[in-house]
Each structure stands twice: as structure tokens, then as C-alpha cells.
Amino acid sequence: MKKKLFLLVFTMLLCKANAQGEQIQIETQNTALILKAGKNGVLYQSYLGTKLRDNSGYNVVSKESTKSFVVNDGNPLVNLRHQAYPTFGTENLFEPAIRMTHNDGNPSLELNYVNHSTQKLDANTTETIIKLKDPVYPVEVTLHYKAFYNENTIEQWTEIVHHEKKPVMLYNYASSMLHFDADHYWLTQFHGDWAKEARMQESELTSGTKIIDSKLGVRTDMYQTPVFFLSLNAKANENSGELVAGTIAWSGNFKFTFELDNKNSLRISSGINPFASEYNLEPGRVFTTPSFIYTFSNKGKGQASRNLHSWAKKYGVKDGEKSRLTLLNNWETTFFNFDEKKLTDMFADSKTLGVDMFLLDDGWFGNKYPRSGDKSGLGDWQATKTKLPNGIGFLMQEAEKTGIKFGIWIEPEMVNPKSELYEKHPDWVLKLPNRPESYYRTQLVLDLCNPQVQDFVFKTVDDIMQTKQGVAFFKWDCNRMMTNAYSAYLKNQQSHLFIEYTRGLYKVLDRIKMKYPNLPMMLCAGGGGRTDYGLLQYFTEFWASDNTDPFNRVFIQWGYSQFFPAFSICNHVTSWGNQSIKFKTDVAMMGKLGFDINVKELKEKELKYCQEAVANYKRLSPVIWHGDLYRMISPYDESRAVLMYVNESKSKAVLFSYTLHPLYDPQYNAVRFQGLDPNKTYKVEEINLMPEAKKSVEESGESFTGDYLMNVGLRVSSSKVESSVVLEITEL
Length: 732
Ligand code: DGJ
Fold this sequence. Notes:
By secondary structure, the chain is an alpha+beta fold. The protein is 23% helix and 30% strand. Among the domains are: 2-300, alpha-galactosidase from lactobacil brevis (Beta-galactosidase, Chain A, domain 5); 629-731, Golgi alpha-mannosidase II (Immunoglobulin-like). Helix 5 (340-353) packs parallel to helix 6 (391-402). Mean pLDDT is 95; it is low at 1-20. The structure holds (2R,3S,4R,5S)-2-(hydroxymethyl)piperidine-3,4,5-triol (DGJ). (2R,3S,4R,5S)-2-(hydroxymethyl)piperidine-3,4,5-triol binds at residues 331, 361-362, 409, 477, 479, 524, 526-527, 543, 546. Substrate binds at residues 194, 361-362, 441, 475-479, 524, 546. Residues 641-722 form the Glycosyl hydrolase family 36 C-terminal domain.
């Protein structure tokens, strides 16, 4: 009761204080976003950056940005350059956040400030809601800002509603628009393809518009991870420089637009990609955009990543604060070629390795059209009798007997034309009328706009969970993008397809999460084709790439580590690449460790090494998963990578050093550690050594102060091509 009263008084105080100058302060521990309504009623962004010690500074910046008119070329111009949510059709000359056509055909919109409120949701989170309204047409737009104090992260989204007689047509509906004024802007994007995910590319923005987007419909992030860094004035590095790190919590088509204008002002609009997606909005229906999530750092990219990792742990990823399951997967070892005996033998192998779970991959289902390859069976989620005569219930029981958990692969949004599902429901797939069906991996996308299809997808999971004791884990795959897409269910509203598909998918996942709240699931899309904080609300982790060659993997994991926490990035030790088992395992241990190898083919020493590495990983995973990440040497700068994780109390740390392909006999100097407590003394121990192998780090076993390790450092990198060093650092 007391707490409620306090919250109410606090909220009222905030509104009163803000109402005086209509200055809206959205703050985290170190960042401030300041908005203010001008005399003309327009809402402006007047500041985004490091929080000032003295609030009066915000009044000064506001004066400039909220002027009703500016002079351009000697002529007065309505000032809309820093409009918080720019409209289209009247005076705005730049990229709009929103564009619509009204019932009467009028293609313009103006939005004026109405009111705002700020509420403290809990000790760490504050939500600010700002209402805007068109002075002529009955259209209302509500801007939402959730500020996470400790994580220095802001989540921003928008609601659009109107009360006209008939639907209005929405052409643009951004989640957010942010404004910056700097001398130079450096953009880092994360580009890729199958087996080449999350490659970092940094370039200076030039005048005009740069777009990063996806039009793939599903498996949306195959060519582009929906994240970016935008550094101000100069390129940011790991520990210095000002930048914004942004990402969109949307699993369908997304779009980031960077518009650098005539005055060198930059505006960034983020949201659903409106491409081929004009939306007919019914009167009274609220169109809610997905959240744009961002953090501002004045201490470089490392701090930005740590902010997002902490945010993800608490708010962004399902069960982010819980532990994860280590596993043995059978995909790379068996592909579609397995039977009961092979699988139950692998259960025993999982036990031998010491991992928590066996994960059965693709190929276990289909009877009329067995899934013996990727050309048939998808959609028929019953175990193939010829392969698995006792069904998956038997496998669940056998795994339990062996003392391991059992997980299973599904791809429930897809169908092979050669399947019973397709024979029964040819109208459940996305396909164009009057044109031939278009296959990719011999499959089609199911129409998740259709509630019957949503029920089917939910039932796929539910049936498996209702078999015997159910599974402990799902790997949810999605191996194609949309092409030739048309939904029979949507009839004459085909431009809603990309949006309604994604919403349909979320509806199914909401039901699954509701019924099975503790079920861990891995998000996968033919490698890392789905890596976004929209789906990570439902998934505990994601498959980063089918490319498991540890050399390539260092780069892929490095890329994802900028935006996603280690516990969410799944890495498996496989037979890709001919490097040592140690190098492969050490690389996979940088995130969530799994194996996908034939354990029986391991030499005795290799097996012993793996067993020890799994045991080490289990001991250290709380630090790797939930500690702070410090990236010290980037593989983009040198032919090696060095990083470390430090736990919250700075009592334990793990350092990974990967030597890639350096020039002959590299002379590596000491690497300075980061994130430790200078006043503590730490023992440094090299772990994950092959049996009888010599240590690479001379000082292994010795103790040093944090001060020494951070200011002098140690030579941590081996000079051998494709080799690795893992150090366990423990407070004495
Ligand atoms: C693509 C995934 O990325 C792989 O890990 C594997 O599950 C295959 N699909 C199975 O078809």
C-alpha cells in the first residue's frame, strides 16, 4: 500500500515538474533523451547523449531545436528538422516516421503534443508515454519510451489509432526517429549470408540516405542482422568514442534508414519495413509497432555491448538469468541417416562426454513420405515407423534411463509438397495464384496469417509435449525465405502479409510460452537467419551459423557478441575444419557450448580433453553466460582474437585467446586484462589443455594483482596457427 502511494506521488511529481516547460526527460543512469513541445505544438527531440549533471543545460539545447521557424536561404521555414515523430504531407522536407492517406483522400498528417505521463514501473524501469494528435483529422499517435536505468537502455515503440469513418491507409509507421548532430557519422552494419553471418562492415555515412533492411519475409536476417552501431564524430573503438547501438525487436521485414541532410544532421528511423506493406487500419484498431531498443555509450562499443547484454539477460531473452543445457546434436554426424540403435548409442555418448542433453535433429518424421532427405515429409510430425518403430516416446524414456535430457528439432512453419499435410491442405501454403509454386530447399512456407494454420503449428509442439514425459528442448528451424508469397486467407489485403505472418507466429509462440513456460528453445533459420529480440522473447538461445569451422566461427561469434549475450549464442564442435579438437572446443566455449561430432571417433586423449573441457565449462558457465564481456583484440585488427568475461563481483574471470593465421613466428606482446578489480589478487591458471600438453602461458599457476594484470598484462596468445589458450582467473 505504502509502495503504491509512493509510486503515485512520484508519478504526479514527475508530470508536474515536466509540465512546467513541457520538457520531457527520459533518463537512465548515464543517458538522457530530452523532448520538448515547441510553441507551435510540434514535439521535438532536443537532446540525446550523456546525461548532464545540471538539468538547466537541457533548456539551452531545447531553445535551439524547438524554434518554430528557421531561416533557410534567407526565407523562414517551419522548423521540422528535429521533429520527434515526423509526419508527411505538410511542411516536413525529410524522411517521415508516419505517412497515411485519410478517408477523403487527403495524404497529409500533422501531429501536435497533447500530454505526457511518466510512471515508475519498478525500481529500475520508467515508462514515459507521450500523446500526439492531428489538429484536423481524428488521428492519435502515442509514443512509448521505457528507460532501463542500470542497463542504460531505452525501448521505444509507437501506437497509431484513428476514429475516421472508414479505414485509413498507412504507408509508413516507424517505431522511432532519432536525431543527431555531429561532424561525422560512422555506421557499423552486420552483413552476411548463409554460413557467413554477422560480418562487421564500418563506413562513414555520406549525404543522402543509407538503408539497411530486409525484404525476405521469414528467415529475415539471412543477409543482414537487424542491428547497427552509429558512432558520432569519429570511429568508436572498444573502449572510447560516442555511439548508439540499436536493434529492432521484430522478426519480419525490418528497416533502418539513415538520412544525412543538408545541415549535416542525421535522422535514424527504425521499424518494420513498410516495403510492399501498406496497412489498411480500421477505425478504433490500434496499430502497435515493434520496439526499437538502443543504448548510448560514451565509452566505446564494449560498453554498448555490455549494456545490451545486461538488458537482454533481464528483459530481452527468455529466461535470460537461468542456466542453459550443454548438448550433443546428431545433425553433422548422421544427417538423415539414423535409426533407434544409432540414436540410443549417441545417448550413451552424451553421457560419456558429460553434456546435459541429446538433441535429435531433422529426419525423424513422415510415414507416407518419410523424411529421408530434404525433399519430403516436412509437415508430417509423426515419427517414421521404419526408422523409429517405437516412436519418440521410447527415445524420451531411453534418454531418461541413460541420465540425459532429450531435445528435438522441428520446422513447423514449413511444408514439403511431398507430404500428407500438403495433400490435405494445399490452401495452407503461401503461393501465388496463376503462377507455378516456387520451392527453396524443396519446401513452401505455411500461411501463418491463417488461424487454422496457427492452431496446427501450436499442435505440432503440443502433441510432442503430450507424448510421454515430453521433450526438454526444441530446436525450431526455418529454412527458407518468402518468395512468390500470397496468402489465400488474407484475400484482398495482400499488403498485410509480411506483418500478419509475423504476428501470427508470435501468437503461436505466446500460446506455447503460456502452456510450457519453462521449455527452453533454440531459434534457428538455416544457420543464423533469425537473430532478433522479437523472437528471443520466446527462445532461450539461437543457432549462430551452420558454418562451424572454428576459424570462421571466431568472426561470426565476434559479430554476434556485439549485440547478443554469450548464453544466447549456440556454438557446436563439429567435423567442419581440420583444426584440433582443442581449438574447436575452445572456440565453441566462448558462447553456449554444444557438440555435433561422432564421439566414438575421438582418440582417447581427445575424449579425455573434451570431458575435461565440458567439466570446466560447467564450472565457468555462470561467468561466461552472465559476466561482463571485454573484447581486447579483434580478429578484424589482428590475426588473433582475445576476450574475457568477468563476473559481477570481479572474483572470477575467463580469458579466451585464439590465434588464427598470423605471419611466420608472430611476436605477441602482453595483453592487458580488463574488468578486474585492481585491488584484488588473482591466480591465473591455464585450463583446457590436451592431456600431457605443455602450458602456453608461462605464468600459469602464479598470482597477480588486478592492477598488474590490467596495466602490464600477460602474454596470453600462442604463436601457433589456429591454436587457443583458455585462462581461469580466480580471486585469492
Ligand atoms: C538448418 C540448420 O541450420 C541445421 O543446423 C540443421 O538443423 C538443418 N537445418 C536440418 O535440416
